[in-house]
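Tokens as discussed.
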């Protein structure tokens, strides 16, 4: 009988293999994350790369058709790539479904004139180069939150700290959540804990971290973790679908991100990319259905956080008054 505990070890085919004399070594209960979202749920869902109202409509329609629950929908091109009317339409559509909408903030390395990000070493990566780029991110944050956006996506530690201080001082609403991009995701417990203290409410870790890496992180931080169950090709193209139950056991509280490999890049989005953007938006939802079906077969689908939940719970922060 499957152990109903949310922290029980679950691996694909384990009972069938055991019957054939091929049982895997037992996993340690000590590897399970002791953390959860404030409501007791251990996982939430996210559909990324939703690049505007039309793609959003496709995601919502397909989610209804396939019965895929969604906690968060995120966009990657940036606030500045959307008009006020488009942002408002997306805010209203997600609010009607009680889904958190997350938009990317401001200028970052791949969009500006800096050449280092195009070298073999990738230089400063996606971070905000110079004072004006940080200012642009803050301007995007103010504009987006004034239009009703409640979650902001960040790809720079300085921007993260600036936005955290901004919400502490009322420049942006106090209930704004800040999400760290996979493009700067921390890869060890120490850096994960630093991002939490800088103001992150959910932290995207790279999809190539091992299960043991997740356990190591959970021994120092309970901040929500985001992870692509299937990563875009520019983030490695990793497919972790068969590990989804164990990713939850080790990484909770965790957002399961339904990405898509073997698909062209769409950032920054424009109408010239319309067909591929709508097609990939639809397929991301289908990938979510496949992952949820796997969870159900493993008996690990019972501890999802309630739909509409979005806050991270109590987290540790650096002193903003210092």
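Sequence:
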């Amino acid at each position: 009988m499957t152990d109903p505990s949310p922290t029980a070890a679950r691996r694909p085919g384990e009972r069938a293999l055991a019957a054939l004399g091929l049982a895997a070594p037992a996993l340690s209960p000590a590897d399970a994350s002791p953390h959860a979202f404030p409501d007791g749920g251990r996982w939430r869902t996210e559909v990324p790369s939703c690049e505007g109202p039309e793609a959003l409509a496709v995601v919502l329609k397909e989610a209804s058709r396939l019965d895929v629950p969604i906690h968060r929908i995120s966009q990657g091109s940036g606030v500045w790539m959307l008009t006020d009317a488009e942002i408002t339409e997306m805010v209203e559509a997600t609010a009607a479904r009680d889904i958190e909408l997350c938009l990317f903030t401001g200028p970052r390395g791949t969009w500006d004139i800096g050449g280092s990000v195009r070298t073999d070493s990738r230089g400063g990566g996606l971070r905000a180069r110079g004072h004006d780029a940080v200012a642009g991110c803050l301007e995007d944050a103010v504009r987006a939150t004034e239009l009703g956006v409640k979650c902001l996506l960040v790809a720079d530690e300085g921007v993260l700290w600036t936005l955290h201080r901004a919400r502490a001082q009322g420049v942006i609403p106090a209930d704004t959540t800040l999400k760290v991009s996979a493009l700067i995701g921390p890869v060890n417990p120490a850096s994960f804990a630093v991002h939490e203290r800088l103001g992150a409410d959910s932290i995207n870790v790279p999809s190539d971290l091992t299960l043991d890496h997740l356990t190591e992180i959970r021994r120092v931080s309970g901040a929500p973790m985001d992870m692509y169950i299937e990563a875009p090709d520019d983030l490695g193209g990793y497919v972790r679908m068969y590990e989804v139950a164990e990713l939850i056991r080790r990484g909770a509280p965790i957002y399961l991100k339904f990405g898509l490999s073997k698909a062209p890049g769409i950032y920054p989005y424009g109408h010239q990319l319309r067909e591929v953007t709508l097609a990939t938006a639809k397929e991301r939802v289908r990938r979510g259905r496949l992952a949820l079906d796997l969870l159900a077969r493993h008996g690990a689908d019972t501890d999802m956080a309630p739909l509409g939940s979005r806050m991270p719970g109590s987290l540790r922060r650096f002193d903003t008054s210092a």
